[in-house]
Design a protein that fits this description.
By secondary structure, the protein is mainly alpha-helical. The protein has one domain: MetI-like (MetI-like fold, Orthogonal Bundle), CATH 1.10.3720. Helices cover 72% and strands 0% of the residues. It contains 14 helices and no strands. The longest helix has 32 residues. Belongs to the binding-protein-dependent transport system permease family. One of its GO terms (biological process) is transmembrane transport.
Amino acid sequence: MPNAHTRLKTTRPRNVLRNPMAKIAALPMILTALVVFIGCSGWTVYYSFTKSRMLPNGDFAGLSQYERLWSTPRWMQSVETIAIYGVLALVLSLVLGFVLAALLDQKIRMESLFRTIFLYPYALSFIVTGLVWQWILNPDFGIQEMVRRAGWDTFAFDPLHNSSLVIGALLMAGLWQGTGLITVIMLAGLRGVDEDLWKAARVDGIPAWKTYVFIILPIMRPVFATATVLIGAGIVKLYDLVVALTQGGPGISSEVPAKYVYDYMFANQNLGQGFAASTMMLVAVLIILLPWAIIEFGGKRRG
């Protein structure tokens, strides 16, 4: 009788050859991803070690571009901004998304309408979102003016021109647009939980909050992992919202890495510095993706 190792060897080639037409159909996409993503990423990393200015050149510069990058106040400010924004956006998106999904999961009336309302901002581009929130936060006709007309003449709320509050403005706009998607993802995860678990928890007299914390959340770990990757990738490449809402100001207080890359590559015509900053962003993305890949595929392989 063949052992498990022998059976695994005999079934593995069959799995590789299963659905050959589907694999052939996926080849163009796979090749495009390999050429565009891996090829262009390698090209960027290579030229980040050169003295490229307006055009790429092969004059090797060692780590000088990276030394200059990490000694530039503007880059350090962009890293600080994206770190603060990233932590707050990640935590608040997950918390708000789960809470809203839990409320929608109570079989409320007009659930489809609420889902549409929550998800609608995600259909807008970040440029539109930035312009909308620029109007909302404008002190001349936005929130500040509306509150003053209501009777509070001394009320002041102008985060777009306050370096200590501008990240809050970015956060409000970002959460307004992105939380709806996380809510829908969480709701799909909640709908996938076996109803018998809820019935057993109610029979045992377990409070609803304990059921969510100790039963539902562990079950939804893959959902949270997927949502975290989506949020993290969006945080790293944050650019158009900043351009539309603050232009990196006041001063450089809302500067982000993607804007730094764009300005150095196209406005300042310093490709080497832009490539070095791009490489740092690539490293940040890999730091986000690798743990998720290990959890997802490592868990499946163990299973």
